TrEMBL record:
This is LysR family transcriptional regulator. It comes from Micromonospora sonneratiae. Belongs to the LysR transcriptional regulatory family. Keywords: DNA-binding, Transcription, Transcription regulation. The keyword Transcription applies. Signal peptide: none annotated. Residues 1-59 form the HTH lysR-type domain. It comes from the Bacteria.
Length: 304
């Protein structure tokens, strides 16, 4: 028996002295109100109403328990009201500042379908981690090494010209003896990849193949990095989806497999679990994973 529903019928009928009018006020059929009151009487083993052909009146037992029934109904209604308010309360989520408006809008729409009113806050990796630590957001998509990532995004190099090869080797950017005075091509790292498990591996590769320190540069923004690449023969470290958005030709790096890893950080474990469970594909689209939510067995390996 649904005790709350039965009490709602009981309170409505007692208030109007009629099963017909009380049921109408409770927005249920009269037969349903009768069954619910009868079930409540059977549950307590006592009659709640004295019934006549014209009206119903409370029995002494009914008068005794009516106040408790009213409190239960009021509490249930308050809980339903609080639940609706909770669904509308913004869930502030820090996200990478790389998602396009279209994909971010789809993420918000997907959240609403799961009763999650997302308030997105684009930020750089270090800022997202700090926002989660200080509880200025309820959760944040934070950059993590490959083996810790729930979402994984392959990285490569993209440029204006089609290299006509399946991969790009960083060592080919090394200046030869014949053109040492020529401007050396650079690799631009956007702020989203200014994290140790990506940036430091790229710098180690730079040193290993003999590039100059100035040939791997961390840009102040993705826009600044892309502008340098669009206007030159330089290359941008980015995901395939970013290259496509910018109209650049993307290829994986021949000497190294780089992957962005992402996970959820939150003050409450249940908030982190909720984001992981409800929105894996929508978040994957925003981040640029292959196949929306890339399973671990299809992600390029390479470690952190």
């Amino acid at each position: 028996m649904d005790v709350v529903a039965a009490c709602k019928a009981f309170v409505a009928v007692s208030g109007y002295g009629s099963f017909t009018v009380g049921a109408a006020a409770a927005r249920i059929p009269q037969s349903v109100a009768s069954r619910r009151v009868a079930a409540l009487e059977e549950h307590f083993g006592a009659r709640l109403f004295d019934r006549s052909s014209r009206s119903v009146t409370l029995t002494p037992f009914g008068r005794e328990i009516l106040p408790s029934a009213r409190r239960l109904v009021e509490l249930a209604e308050a809980m339903e009201h609080d639940a609706e308010r909770a669904k509308l309360r913004p869930f502030r989520l820090a996200v990478p500042a790389i998602g396009t408006p279209r994909l971010l809008a789809r993420l918000v729409a997907d959240g609403r379908r799961h009763d999650l009113n997302l308030d997105l806050h684009p930020a750089a990796p270090s800022e997202r981690m700090e926002l989660a630590r200080t509880l200025e957001v309820r959760a944040a998509l934070v950059a993590v090494p490959l083996n810790e990532g729930v979402w994984r995004v392959p990285l490569g190099l993209a440029g204006n010209a089609d290299p006509r090869t399946s991969t790009i080797y960083v060592e080919t950017l090394r200046a030869g003896r014949a053109n040492r005075d020529a401007r050396r091509r650079c690799i631009w790292i956007q702020p989203e990849d200014d994290v140790p498990h990506v940036r430091d591996r790229m710098i180690r590769l730079r040193d290993a193949v003999g590039l100059q320190p100035a040939q791997v540069v961390v840009a102040t923004s993705l826009v600044a990095a892309a502008a340098e690449v669009i206007d030159s023969t330089d290359l941008l470290l980015c995901s395939p989806s970013q290259a496509d958005e910018l109209g650049l030709h993307w290829r994986p790096i021949g000497e190294l497999e780089l992957v962005r890893g992402y996970d959820v950080a939150a003050g409450l474990r249940e908030d982190a679990q909720r984001i992981r469970a409800l929105l894996p594909a929508a978040i994957g689209r925003c981040l640029g994973t292959l196949g929306n939510d890339m399973p671990s067995d299809t992600v390029p390996s390479g470690g952190a």
